[in-house]
Amino acid sequence: MSDPSSTRSSGPADDEDREVDAIVRSGPRGAIAVAGVSTAIVIALWFAFYFFIFVPRGVIQ
């Protein structure tokens, strides 16, 4: 039996596969950045509501 990798021709598809493999190996940096920014926005909004709405109202008696 022949090795399937030896029958594969080198061409544009192989170059694209190598580029995709390099991108996948580098990891999900963009997704982590988007998740971090969105988490920071949610926390900032929570503090804004807390300090500008709940604290000025005072203690409920």
Helix count, per DSSP?
3
Element string (H = helix, E = strand) = HHH
Reported for the largest beta sheet, the result is: none
| Main structural class | mainly alpha
Q: What is the general shape?
A: rod-shaped
Total count of strands = 0
Give your account of this protein's structure.
With 61 residues, this protein is mostly helical. The chain has a domain of 32 residues. It has three helices and no strands. The protein is rod-shaped. The termini are far apart. This is Cytochrome c oxidase subunit 2A. Keywords: Membrane, Transmembrane, Transmembrane helix. It comes from Pararobbsia silviterrae.
What would you say about this model in short?
With 61 residues, the protein is mainly alpha-helical.
List the defining traits of the structure above.
79% helix; 61 residues; single chain
